[in-house]
Amino acid sequence: TSSAPKAxxxxxxxxxxxxxxxxxxxxxIPKYQYYQSDxxxxxxxxxxxxxAERCEVVFEEDSVKFTLEKGGEKLVVLxxxxxxxxxxxxxxxxxxxxxxxxxxxKANQLEWNELMSKGEKKKKAEREAEKAEKEKGIDTDxxxxxPAPVVEGSDKPRAYASHRDWDEIDRTLTKAEENEKPEGExxxxxxxKQIYGNAxxxxxxxxxxxxxxxxxxxxxxxxxxxxxxxxEKERTAPKGMQWQNWEGDKLPQKxx
Length: 256
Known about the structure:
Elements: H1 19-22, E1 32-36, E2 40-45, E3 55-60, E4 63-70, E5 73-81, E6 92-95, E7 100-105, H2 124-136, H3 140-145, H4 166-178, H5 184-197, H6 201-213, H7 223-226, H8 231-234
């Protein structure tokens, strides 16, 4: 006798995807690096195509905070106490195609052993109190003993009935700051701006195309030459190195 066929159970339905698997990955906080000269500490934030509208930068005498809006979220890239004090009104931010440069003007020309300090951020009231104490300790006799411009016979009221022309002193200090020569990368950028500002349209086109298409390795002012060249195919890299884009894809380059 033949046995009756057995019924095969239906497969179990696939489990529904969890909320965690459907959640998109959070935007990554950009990395940064820094270098310094006698007067500046420059922080390179390695994030391309950043505009000022997406950033919030706060400079204080002993700290810096840099916030970036990315992927609908506000990311805190920098926030902490600096190794040494800075001059907030002389700090600046430069937005470039492939990065953001945050330039911190040192209050004292000393070498920083690190970017951030392990100390706690001082409150504004504490900083002002310390500043007032330092000002009390100034040797005014020594300061006033130095030669300074003098105004004779002026009817303009002056502090402590002094004949010193304090306006002239202020103008002299202001002029000295304006004549302060840039150094390092700042001096190089200043030179490029001068060349670009005084150049013809063809020279400007040559500078822009050569610098951008070569990845920043060539800067030419000869439009007749630049207009015929393809720097993206002719660019070179040090032995053993390879040009790549931000996604890690290899870019064409000329072999040595």
